[in-house]
Hints:
- 60% of the residues lie in helices and 0% in strands.
- By secondary structure, it is mostly helical.
- α3 packs parallel to α6.
- The longest helix is centred in the C-terminal third of the chain and has 24 residues, at 133-156.
- It is globular, with a radius of gyration of 17 Å.
Amino acid sequence: MTTNEHHHPTSALNPEHTPRTNWAELAPDVYKAMIRLDAASRRGLDPVVGELVKIRASQLNHCAFCLDMHTKDALAAGESIERIVQLSAWEESQHYYTPKEIAAIELTEAVTVLTDGFVPDKVWEKAAKHFDETELAHLVAAITTINAWNRFAVTTRLVPGHYKPAETRH
């Protein structure tokens, strides 16, 4: 009998779902544009903040595929398990993060959820205190980009669990 990483017999686990479609193959120009957008948004942003933003937005959007990818990328880049685990309850565990990271997380939530139809001035002003104008522009781009990735992945039911981070990341 085989087991997964958590020492449960694989026969006891639910079977994987299948993706609905392979949108990247069917819309290759859109996929390539998303790759370029993702790369462009990351250029002006601290990679640690970038991964926290991707994980938090993916949690809010219930995107298992992106959670799998970005938690693995964060771990491969040296992020701690504790900070990744606590991110879903960051308001009660702010001591794990810097004030700048908290400002990015708050902005991520405001942009991702848009519950009141806008990003509150208080959240924007806090982020603007911690990020210069160029960084802030890239942060908004990174938040918007991961939200787009989440929507592609959730809608097409991409299957989590198979992503392997690049060996060169550390």
